[in-house]
Write a structure and sequence with these properties.
α1 packs across α5 and α7 (190-200) crosses α8. The protein is 40% helix and 22% strand. By secondary structure, the chain is an alpha+beta fold. The mean pLDDT is 87. Strands 1, 2, 3, 4, 5, 6, 7 and 8 form an 8-stranded mixed beta sheet that branches.
Length: 224
């Protein structure tokens, strides 16, 4: 493990990942989303103090708290597919169109979205990499609990580059689109993404999966 990777993982330990499994924690997530998406970036209209949409009803949410200050600094959600027979009905489909999804499996596919980090820390802490890894740890835990086996998302190219540097690789899903700037639709099977991470950045994999306990499917695949 390089000194740079060791430093990032040491910094990541200052952030605690929790699942928003109570009404209070959900409000905290929606409040931070309002701060980031409505107030700081102006992506959403910002009606009230909470930012929510219809997809939150079937989404899992994770929170990232800075241990040293107790501040909530990040949140992310995974939107589960609609009930069987109703199609996926994921947020990015209205932007990419149904055609883009023909090249990927739709079974147990969930969309990573509302990947939000507070402005106070977004541009600091080694370019925010420890925070992004903390949120990805939340994504892995949510995926295991929700039975999600494939990820899809629309991401900034900068975020994709930072994730690749940590051994987290997504596959492009059609061409880049204009959505609050140029964004790349992408996807990846969870076990495949984590397997490559394990090969390229074993220490990062250990953190993001808590040594495999957050995604036991990975251990089962290796054992088989």
């Amino acid at each position: 493990m390089t000194a740079a990777v060791s430093g990032v993982l040491d910094a990541a330990k200052d952030f605690e990942v929790t699942i928003a499994d109570t009404p209070e924690r959900l409000r905290d997530a929606y409040r931070l989303r309002h701060q980031v998406y409505c107030m700081e970036r102006g992506y959403e209209p910002g009606d009230g103090a909470l930012e929510t949409d219809r997809f939150d009803r079937r989404a899992g949410h994770a929170l990232l708290t800075q241990r040293s200050t107790g501040r909530l600094v990040g949140t992310v959600r995974i939107v589960a597919p609609a009930n069987r027979g109703q199609g996926l009905d994921l947020p990015m489909q209205s932007l990419c169109g149904e055609g883009a999804f023909r090249s990927m499996p739709t079974y147990r596919t969930g969309e990573i979205s509302r990947f939000a980090i507070s402005k106070a820390l977004r541009d600091s802490s080694a370019d925010g990499i420890p925070l992004r890894l903390g949120l990805m740890r939340g994504v892995v835990q949510l995926s295991s609990e929700m039975g999600i086996h494939n990820w899809c998302a629309i991401m900034e190219h900068t975020l994709l580059r930072l994730l690749r540097g940590s051994g987290i690789h997504f596959q492009p899903l059609g061409p880049a689109i204009e959505y609050h700037g140029l964004r790349q639709p992408c996807w990846g099977p969870v076990t495949q993404v984590l397997g490559r991470m394990r090969e390229e950045r074993r220490a990062v994999w250990e953190y993001v999966t808590d040594g495999g306990t957050l995604w036991p499917h990975q251990i089962e695949a290796v054992a088989a």
